[in-house]
Amino acid sequence: MDDVTDLTGDGGVIKKIVTRAKAGALAPSEDLPMVDVHYEGTLAETGEVFDTTHEDNSVFSFELGKGTVIQAWDIALKTMKVGEVAKITCKPEYAYGAAGSPPDIPPNATLIFEVELLSCRPRKGSSLGSASAERARLEELKKQREIAASTRYENTTTSMTSLANTVTHV
């Protein structure tokens, strides 16, 4: 099964699923527009990493659809589910365009991001912000993080089993 999708129809934003989310995982929506992600951004031309949250294990949070991130992210993250890891390739017109983002991103650069959607939640002050809704949100966030951790564990276990089988057959 091919997990590659042209999200814009013009090849401008291509999404390749690296790790699928568990069944029943939440997805960003009008009610859950706030997202938390881990990511690594590289220049397609050189493979050079220009930004990552992995070095300091930080989390990047933003609201979808508000123009606070490059257009490719707004497009791609709306199609993801919590626990999913995807490789997003974006042409310049969906990233930083002719201006680039000096000094790290040159003009007209095609970028590749590996993004993991950690959680999605309502914006602060939304109608979902009551105390009981907040408790429910925190429980759901905990559940989604457990699903994401379980997915990472299963992928690591599968990789280790495959590696062990390879080593024993050498």
TrEMBL record:
One of its GO terms (cellular component) is cytoplasm. Residues 32-121 form the PPIase FKBP-type domain. It is an enzyme of class 5 (isomerase). Keywords: Isomerase, Rotamase. It holds the Pfam family FKBP_C. GO terms for molecular function: peptidyl-prolyl cis-trans isomerase activity. It comes from the Eukaryota. The keyword Isomerase applies. It catalyses: [protein]-peptidylproline (omega=180) = [protein]-peptidylproline (omega=0). Its EC number is 5.2.1.8. This is peptidylprolyl isomerase.
